[in-house]
Known about the structure:
The chain is built from six helices and 23 strands. A hairpin with a 4-residue loop joins strand 9 (about 130-135) and strand 10. Strands 5, 6, 7, 12, 13, 15, 16 and 21 form an eight-stranded mixed β-sheet that branches. It is an alpha+beta fold and about 350 residues long. It folds into two domains: about 5-70, Fumarylacetoacetase, N-terminal domain (SH3 type barrels, Roll), CATH 2.30.30.230; about 80-339, Fumarylacetoacetate hydrolase, domain 2.
Amino acid sequence: MTIAYGVVRPPGGEPRVAARVDGRVVDLSDLGDAFRRPSLNDFMTLGRDAWRATTERARGLDGPRVDGECLLPFEVADYVDFYSSLDHATNLGRLFRPDSEPLLPNWRHLPVGYHGRAGTVVVGGSAIRRPHGQRMPGPTFGPSTRLDIELEIGFVIGTPSRLGVPVPVEQALDHVFGVVLVNDWSARDIQAWEYQPLGPFLGKSFATSISPWVVPLDELAEYRVPLPPQEPPLLDYLATDPWAYDLELEIELNGETISRTNARHLYWNIEQQLAHLTANGASLRTGDLLASGTISGPERDSSGSLIELTWNERFLEDGDEVVLRAPQLQLEVRGRITP
């Protein structure tokens, strides 16, 4: 069974690092100071050899078990959100630019992305307050009336890189600790008015929910699958054999499953995202979160957002509860909308 790491605060106790393995949540605080912390960050800095050794030890631990509140599993250093699903980008292009090519000219040449706000990343289960901002027609100021979900996976950086030194694509995975499930909530009406010419701002920066458990990258090896060649051929710094993770994903809204999709629909993989992010010399920090962008498949019921599922007709109401799931990894992200 897949192992995962998180941070648990037992009733009346202090937060500590725990492992979820074989249906049990095991306290790891006896393994050293890095595990007697309110985040995974100290553990993640230790590097892949230590991660693998800890996983082997955690699988063999009989106890002690720990129950309590699951907290945000790591301190988010920087947050980057990509736009890496071909079907998602194509769908939005058709919606917003019906008389033009759905993909902008740069899309097949580089992993498009933007920098978000690390301080608004919250653990799954947190209430999501409907954001306020400017909207059209008008403009007027008020609560978003087109609040949406975005089903994504996110990669967590463990070992940092040096400022000014790009990370080669073939070394990118050495820096990745693990994966989380992500709901990058989106206020479509606020975003539509404000994003030109500089991109997402208030329409995206109000909340991003992540799963309370992080699955180590090694656990995903069995789900890795090859993809067809990327066209046109890429510049050398992004060139690698195309691949993705064959991970089933689901969206549930108010108890009803409304979408089933798969992470293999991502065109750009984490190696390429990370190589592009650092190509200008930007550094990685422990706790960086690199989200994939909305994951959609070729069919309408395999879309990762309401704007695609309803073709721009239905959005979230106050009181709605959204649950995203990655069943093979036993990851889940919940969120309920509040006024």
